[in-house]
Design goal:
Length: 366
């Protein structure tokens, strides 16, 4: 690994909450990544919605494949910029661990149920999963990840919550940045979902090539593909266009970020933290990404088929929350034993951990 001075170094990590012996085989960020991959919450991502409910079709993304795609994009960018690939990978694989079943519809529904009890936020929940909810080790709850991975997981945080998070919350109070690796994953997440949601929209036939061509950047890539290839199937045109679009966006990010890094000359991770954001897109690509997001909101997430699924998700989550509130003894005993929180928080933790199918089946019995 060709690390630059501003990359995070496992040897200079701010450490774990519970002190552990150093591994002779793996660096601390590799250990984090391995702990995440072996966790229960990670496996459950396979059956959680990204945009389409997980059993609607086998070819759509779910939270697991989304996380793998974010990890792939993150690693590539980290390598290009001389950052620590293992840390970027660990953050990417864990960034969505706190997601509820049914994607954003599930999170909104659970947040509404929790309105009077401190709310529910999937990003904060991802940290909660790795800090307390996983029970894999005898000496502590959670996965006991390094500060750097936890810092990367927590992308945003209210002042109120930041005050309760100790050193991890400082940057939100002081308006500092996280490590370069965390900044990379944050934008790799956007890059991944912008592209794969369009792709899933196309596969589901909600979107088609003429509608996608309304997006200027997509159209530019589409025309490039059509100039180079004749007589190829629509599916190939779509895949080549998406591939080209991703290439353009990632290249732009690497180029622009490299310029920012060269200008700021950070020598340590702490200098990265005290700087302006150093990972970013050009103005042109930023506005293209905004157009893609707007397009996806209106044409895909706002499509009647997806909205109908969101409404069903809300019914399921509401039903489960009300049921466990009336019947707290029905929460699994070992699950309750892990937490000294309020009943509502325990219910939220339990529901957030469910897969789409489990939640639907359980709601039928409530
Ligand atoms: Mg994500």
């Amino acid at each position: 690994m060709n690390l630059k001075p501003y990359a995070a170094h496992p040897e200079f990590s701010k450490g774990r909450q519970h002190i552990e012996a150093v591994s002779p085989l793996r660096n601390e960020f590799q250990r984090d990544r391995d702990r995440i991959i072996h966790s229960t919450s990670f496996r459950r991502l396979q059956y959680k919605t990204q945009v389409f409910v997980s059993h609607e079709g086998d070819m759509f993304r779910n939270r697991l494949t989304h996380s793998l795609e974010v990890a792939q994009v993150s690693r590539g960018i980290a390598r290009t910029l001389g950052c620590h690939e293992d840390l970027a990978e660990a953050i990417a694989l864990s960034h969505d661990l706190g997601h509820t079943p049914f994607g954003h519809a599930g999170q909104d529904a659970l947040n509404l149920c929790m309105k009077r009890y401190g709310g529910f936020e999937h990003n904060l929940q991802s940290l909660r999963v790795v800090d307390t909810l996983e029970a894999r080790y005898a000496n502590f709850l959670g996965l006991n990840l390094t500060f750097e991975t936890r810092e990367g997981i927590l992308k945003h945080c209210s002042r109120k919550n930041a005050l309760q998070l100790g050193e991890l919350g400082h940057r939100f109070l002081e308006k500092n940045q996280p490590s370069m690796e965390a900044q990379i994953v944050n934008l790799a997440d956007e890059i991944a979902y912008c592209h794969h949601d369009l792709d899933d929209g196309f596969r589901s036939k909600i979107l088609n090539l003429p509608s996608l061509r309304e997006l200027p950047l997509f159209n530019q890539c589409y025309e490039y593909v059509m100039r180079k290839h004749q007589n190829i199937k629509d599916e190939q045109v779509m895949n080549e266009s998406i591939r080209r679009m991703m290439h353009l966006i990632i290249s732009d990010l690497c180029e622009v970020s490299q310029e920012k890094i060269t200008a700021a000359k950070p020598n340590t991770v702490d200098e990265v933290r005290q700087n302006m954001p150093l990972i970013g897109f050009s103005k042109e690509i930023s506005s293209e990404i905004q157009l893609i997001k707007k397009f996806s909101r209106e044409r895909l997430y706002g499509h009647s088929k997806i909205v109908e699924m969101s409404n069903q998700a809300q019914v399921v989550i509401d039903k489960l929350f009300a049921f466990f509130k009336r019947n707290p003894s029905k929460l699994p005993a070992d699950f309750c034993a892990q937490s000294s929180d309020t009943l509502e928080r325990k219910i939220a933790d339990y529901i957030a951990g469910m897969t789409d199918r489990f939640a639907i089946e359980l709601a039928k019995k409530c």
